[in-house]
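So, can you check these tokens?
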Amino acid sequence: MPDHPSSSHERTVDSGRGLLLFTLLVVIATVTVKLWLAWDVRASAMFSDDYAYLNKSIFYIHGQWDMPGYIFQNVFAGILYPLVISPWMLFDTPEARIFTIWVVNALLSGVTVWFGALAVGGATGRQFWPAPICLAVFVPTFLFSLVAMTENLVFPLIAFCAWLAADFDNTLRSRWRFIALCAAVAALPLVRAPGLAAGLALALLCLLECRRIGWLKSVLKALALIAATLGPYLFLMSCAPAVNTLSDAKREDAYVDALGDILRDPWKWWIVVLISLSQLKYVMIATGGFSLPTFLATFFLRKPQSSPAPRPQVRHLRNFVTLCSLGMLGIAELHIIRKIHFEVRGADIIFGRYMDPIALMVLIAGVAALATLRRMRLNR
């Protein structure tokens, strides 16, 4: 005798609760392991850039935004992360201070796992248990937890945006979800410049939803996201000194110059292609080899007639990851070109700090694609 519909719904709810509990346990285990390892990590293990962010914490927490005497850093770049890790100043010993930073980073990585798993579940509508495990063992987030760098805050913000983008219809309908999305895209560029790509990608997604919500509403939502993305960032950058006051130009000016060189000389597109291949190779390795091919396969596979239609949430997540990744890749390439000056022998350089957020998005989308393809196979 078939089950009553209500009993099937109860099993689905119970399964959803079970996955949330499992994800929470994975988050707790991830944070615990990282803090256990952190006992053996000393300050000497940090990168040179770490000290710039730690110095910013000292100035920012006292309201000294101009950082007098600190000339070798764009003081308004990465403005939020130094504030997030500022509790290290509450302690006196170097060991306690460093461990406090590791605690903050570990908690941020736990948030990344949580929202990344929610993004996969929201996109696929299935309880895919490997999702939180794949996110927990993602190498870049694991390693960055033991260094004081801005990517620790970029990762959870990206995962949060992916979760809201997956269920984009509800995000556009809900006032509070949309406000939360605007806050996230406003924060991302203030953590790391490539975060600009997230808000602009979501604005384009709004325009693509014009048939569902109407042209006027889609344009207004897109303009709100663009304003939230560019407004705070451009305001701070207009006040920011150069990266090095001994130099005559800002980094952003160099990006514009590099873009102009590419547009004026078609032969330089070959360098862009070579750089792109190097970055994609890194993304493929960083995501375990399966995420990028699986994600790309969803663009080409045809749905069998016996399979249910793909959920629109899968398409929303895929479009967000694609547009945002392309935007971040473009910014990374401008940064690399600025360093190698269009030299072919330098095209194999990999800028991991710009690629790691892309790798995280590809991992989330790849795991969601894996769950979707598995569903199609089971329904054949």
Observations:
- The radius of gyration is 22 Å.
- Confidence is low (pLDDT under 50) at residues 1-15, 242-248.
- The chain has one domain: 5-378.
